[in-house]
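tokens incoming
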């Protein structure tokens, strides 16, 4: 079991019979398994026996298991249990006056050599021996339920029923079975004598007639750390981004309006020599770019990712993809991506045909194979690493075949259908003609060269997403629940607006400098936001995660690459179409 997947395995214990995982859960590495912990509804139990593990000093297999146990405790590995589709939560005092509830609980705690408690060791003064590993071998389960007495659904069935509202866990480390006063159970670093660890548990049911079953998730969501800070930070970011967007629009529209008015007053004859700025390049503005095939493929794939993201966020805002529906978010995204091959093929073929391209077969193949192939290739390599480590998060060969069937059986044919209709359409008619002889681009200053504009162009869009990005990364790597899809959708809209306005503004500056090479620049300007996203992920890795082994580091950056690459396609496509609309608009009115 690798360090990353031990922390990510979100259901390694289940009370009762385990349900079948959906596609999203399987791809994300979630596996639901049954556990030896048994109980009956409304039947309180004390000191129930779960299992007993013995370790012998001369047994190499036992010594290896002790090493794995110590390794897990030192890295704060978590148990993740489910009861009635509710996560078993561990609640503890966080900030003064705030109770924080985590969806997982640690298997033990480690007191460093300095003797200063950290993590779960702060909960009990008995954890006082420096450089010592303690294991939690007794679990106190407190199950709160809403009784059916007096309820309509309870009358129809049986008054002696209820709906589970929450399952909270208390942790204890006991060296003597059924003795709460015994010293904590210590896991020795060197096994010199036989060690026996007995795992026990207690169950207590509490009736809560005031809390409704429909609001059973509220206590967990309200106890999220820094929830209030997140609200104010998002609103603050929203105000700043809207203010900057308004300034960009004002700065852009005012001089552009004056330019159009001045150019329209110029006679076509004697005053032609007075033309300057962006109108001088009207004969080259729609000249096809270099590597137009690759650009059209990226734009087509970006449209596919954009529509997938938009529809997924809309479904999430409507409540169809709530935390209760495990794996629903990723399942929805995968299904949408597969079914949106038609828009990708259509857009890619239309753009490529407007460039004068004739290799339509290669265009369709690249659109359906290149970007999905990169994502699948990286994912396959990561899965091989998980296989080699024997991780339960590794996807089986059968699931890989299913993913390939979705790709080649649905996505690729739909891409061909979209490309068929796209190539049947007439080429996009541009408002101005393209000269046969290319115009020479004058020497550019440092500020109007492509590289500085591309680097600066990604700053403002990244500024509107980095707060949300922190909470998204927490939900992915720190096992925190993400549920603010409404704010996420709002930030996505702001991202679209900011990418569009920033790209258009920089495009206008370059056109005024008589540089008409805007095709690739428009895509890379907003697409460079993905670079800042990657740098933030590196910062998050260094400051927030305690990953030590090379395998987990490779897995982290592998999954990060997939996320950054998809975001590059998304943001680059937004900037491309904004600039494409802007250029066609200004050259159609002069």
């Amino acid at each position: 079991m690798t360090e990353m997947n031990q922390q990510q395995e979100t259901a390694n214990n289940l009370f009762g019979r385990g349900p079948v995982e959906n596609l999203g859960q399987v791809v994300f590495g979630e596996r639901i398994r049954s556990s030896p912990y048994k109980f009956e509804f409304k039947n309180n139990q004390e000191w129930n026996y779960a299992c007993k593990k013995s370790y012998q000093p001369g047994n190499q297999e036992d010594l290896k298991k002790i090493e794995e146990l110590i390794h897990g405790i030192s890295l704060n590995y978590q148990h993740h249990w489910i009861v009635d589709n509710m996560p078993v939560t561990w609640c503890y005092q966080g900030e003064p006056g705030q109770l924080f509830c985590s969806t997982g609980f640690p298997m033990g705690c480690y007191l460093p050599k300095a003797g200063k408690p950290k993590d779960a060791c702060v909960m009990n003064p008995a954890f006082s021996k420096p450089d010592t590993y303690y294991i939690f071998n007794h679990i106190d389960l407190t199950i709160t339920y809403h009784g059916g007495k007096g309820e309509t659904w309870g009358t129809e069935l049986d008054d002696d029923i209820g709906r589970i509202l929450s399952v909270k866990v208390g942790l204890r480390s006991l060296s003597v079975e059924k003795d709460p006063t015994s010293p904590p159970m210590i896991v020795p670093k060197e096994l010199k004598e036989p060690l026996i660890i007995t795992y026990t548990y207690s169950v207590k049911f509490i009736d809560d007639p005031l809390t409704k079953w429909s609001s059973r998730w509220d206590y967990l969501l309200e106890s999220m750390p820094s929830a209030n800070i997140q609200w104010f930070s998002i609103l603050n970011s929203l105000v700043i981004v809207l203010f900057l967007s308004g300034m960009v629009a004002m700065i852009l529209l005012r001089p552009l309006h004056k330019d159009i008015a001045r150019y329209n007053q110029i006679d076509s004859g004697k005053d032609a020599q007075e033309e300057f700025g962006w109108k001088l390049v009207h004969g080259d503005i729609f000249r096809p770019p270099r590597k137009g095939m690759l650009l059209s493929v990226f734009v087509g794939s970006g449209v596919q990712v954009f529509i997938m993201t938009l529809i997924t966020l809309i479904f999430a805002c409507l409540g169809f993809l709530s935390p209760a529906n495990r794996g629903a978010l990723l399942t929805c995204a995968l299904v949408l991506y597969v079914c949106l091959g038609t828009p990708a093929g259509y857009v890619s073929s239309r753009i490529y045909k407007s460039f004068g391209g004739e290799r339509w077969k290669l265009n369709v193949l690249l659109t359906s194979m290149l970007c999905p192939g990169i994502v699948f290739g990286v994912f396959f390599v990561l899965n091989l690493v998980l296989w080699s480590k024997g991780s339960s998060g590794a996807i089986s060969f059968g699931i890989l075949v299913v993913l390939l069937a979705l790709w080649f059986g649905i996505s690729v044919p739909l891409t061909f259908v979209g490309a068929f209709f796209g190539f049947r359409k007439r080429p996009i008619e541009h408002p101005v003609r393209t000269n046969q002889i290319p115009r020479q681009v004058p020497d550019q200053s440092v500020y109007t060269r492509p590289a500085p504009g591309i680097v600066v162009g990604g700053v403002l869009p990244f500024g509107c997403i980095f707060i949300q990005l922190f909470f998204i990364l927490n939900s992915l790597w720190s096992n925190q629940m993400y549920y603010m899809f409404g704010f996420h959708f709002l930030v996505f809209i702001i991202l679209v607006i900011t990418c569009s306005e920033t790209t258009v503004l920089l495009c206008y500056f370059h056109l005024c400098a008589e540089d008409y090479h805007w095709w690739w620049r428009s895509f890379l300007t907003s697409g460079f936001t993905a670079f800042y996203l990657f740098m933030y992920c590196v910062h998050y890795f260094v400051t927030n995660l305690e990953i030590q082994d090379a395998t987990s580091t490779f897995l982290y950056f592998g999954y990060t690459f997939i996320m950054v690459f998809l975001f590059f396609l998304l943001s680059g496509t937004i900037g491309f179409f904004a600039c494409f609309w802007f250029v066609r608009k200004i050259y159609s009115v002069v």
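note: The two ends are 65 Å apart (CA to CA).
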